Amino acid sequence: MRSPILKALCLTLTFLGGTSAGSEDDLPPMHQRFTKPKRVREWQQFCRKSDDFNPLFGVDALNTYLVSMGKEGWELVLMDAQFGMVCFKRPAS
Question: Per-block average pLDDT, block size 10, for the chain (93 residues)?
């Protein structure tokens, strides 16, 4: 009869050999797994700097402006209170 250590070693080598065989070779390289989309969405960007957005003057002017831009389809992507700048984006088409 075989010793328990030899039996465990054989089982371990069989398992490792079986699980690693062909696992990496069957997959294409990472850069080939994903294809470029048929249509890439284009965006319009728009930034505005104004003293109206100064937090010292209150947020009502800013809020009114943001609501009006949202109704035109613009999405807020950046707001910098230090410089009084807001930036928006929306789909180009």
Answer: 68 62 57 72 89 68 86 92 87 86
- Going by C-beta distance under 8 Å and a sequence separation of 6 or more, which residues neighbour residue 90? 43, 44, 72, 73, 74, 75
Separation between Cα atoms, residue 87 and residue 3, nearest integer Å: 73
Distance CA 90, CA 74 (A): 5
Report how far apart, in Å, the C-alpha atoms of 14 and of each of 3, 17, 24 are: 17, 5, 18
Q: What is the pTM of this model?
A: 0.53
Burial of 87 (0-12, 13-18, 19+ CB in 10 A): middle
